[in-house]
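testing teh design pipeline on a random one, pls ignore if ur not involved
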């Protein structure tokens, strides 16, 4: 009986275990057969700053450049004769007028040379008088037959030589007189003295620089432009500049282009005239841009056009979802508000797209405006300051 009870107990335990395993398998099969409850799709919350609208407006392509402000007219007052400087009548920052006496040099030696040349003229004139009287006498003697024609020819030659010597002496006087006048230097242009390169009492050589004069009434920016960009530049195109150290912006125009390139850099020097301003000075550094082309077109902020695929595209807000739309771009325009790009194909005016401030997003993502129960039927246009100019294909 004990053995029988033991087997009955073992069989009961095995049956209980088998029943538990069966129920567990059944529950797992039932759970696998039930469809999973779908998770709610994420919705992207957008603010008005995250949406921009494709608008038609005038945009301009520009070429950025930088250079140095220079005066159109500058002049160096140089010594025309070697000598000691006695007086200089102008200092840095003083205004001078054309023809105004600026520098006086010591003239003692020049006066002596002028006097020497004048005495030589007197001697040559006296010698000419002697030869002329001798020639007149010889002509009378030839007529009377007292001397030969050969002697007369000699007198004619002597008179011609004396006359030539007098002309040489007179030219020497003119040279000495000019040298004496060159000891006094005048302003070649009207302007302001920018440098005083010598001082009274200093002895200077020929062509030594003494003063520099700058005319600030006409200024220009001298800038180097790559050769490939010069073809788009035309004289008369408007330009705007900012000058280091000065507030505000300055306007100007392309004045002329250098026909040669710079050695080494192969850049072309472009000269842009600037409207006169009392704060501008020669040597200041200026940076700005020249307007190359202006036209009416559809524009978006350049950041809204995405370039991580083979073709440029934008995320258009359509029917409550973000849909990727390929676009063809044109000009790029740059201004103080930023950079924007022309949309040639792919979108119609008024289309609303996701701004570049939201970088990563999946296509087809649902969206809604912040604080709204669902997608807004009408979104505000992007502010003008969010749009900017430039050029690319």
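output:
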């Amino acid at each position: 009986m004990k053995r029988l009870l033991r087997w009955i107990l073992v069989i009961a335990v095995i049956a209980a275990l088998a029943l538990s395993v069966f129920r567990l398998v059944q529950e797992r099969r039932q759970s696998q057969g039930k469809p999973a409850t779908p998770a709610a799709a994420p919705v992207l919350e957008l603010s008005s700053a995250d949406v921009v609208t494709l608008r038609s407006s005038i945009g301009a392509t520009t070429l950025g450049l930088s250079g140095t402000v220079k005066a159109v007219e500058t002049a160096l007052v140089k010594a025309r004769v070697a000598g000691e400087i006695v007086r200089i009548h102008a200092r840095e920052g003083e205004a001078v007028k054309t023809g105004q006496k600026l520098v006086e040099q010591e003239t003692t030696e020049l006066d002596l040379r002028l006097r020497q040349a004048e005495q030589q003229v007197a001697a040559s004139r006296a010698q000419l008088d002697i030869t002329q009287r001798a020639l007149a006498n010889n002509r009378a003697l030839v007529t009377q037959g007292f001397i030969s024609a050969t002697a007369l020819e000699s007198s004619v030659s002597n008179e011609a030589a004396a006359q030539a010597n007098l002309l040489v002496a007179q030219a020497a006087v003119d040279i000495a007189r000019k040298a004496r006048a060159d000891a006094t230097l005048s302003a070649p242009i009207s302007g302001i003295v920018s440098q005083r390169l010598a001082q009274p009492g200093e002895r200077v050589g020929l062509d030594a620089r003494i003063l520099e004069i700058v005319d600030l009434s006409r200024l220009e920016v001298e800038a180097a432009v790559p050769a490939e960009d010069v073809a788009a530049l035309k004289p008369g195109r408007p330009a705007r500049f900012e000058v280091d150290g000065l507030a505000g912006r300055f306007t100007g125009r392309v004045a002329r282009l250098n026909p040669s390139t710079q050695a080494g850099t192969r850049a072309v020097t472009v000269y842009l005239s600037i409207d006169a301003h009392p704060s501008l000075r020669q040597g200041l550094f200026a940076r700005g841009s020249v307007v190359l082309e202006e036209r009416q077109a559809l524009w978006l902020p350049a950041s809204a056009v995405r370039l991580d695929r083979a073709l440029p595209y934008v995320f258009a807000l359509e029917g409550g979802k973000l849909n990727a739309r390929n676009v063809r771009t044109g000009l790029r325009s740059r201004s103080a508000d930023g950079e924007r790009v022309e949309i040639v194909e792919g979108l119609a005016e008024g289309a609303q797209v996701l701004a570049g401030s939201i970088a990563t997003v999946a296509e087809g993502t649902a969206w809604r405006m912040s604080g709204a129960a669902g997608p807004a039927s009408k979104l505000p246009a992007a502010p003008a300051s969010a749009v900017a100019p430039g050029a690319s294909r």
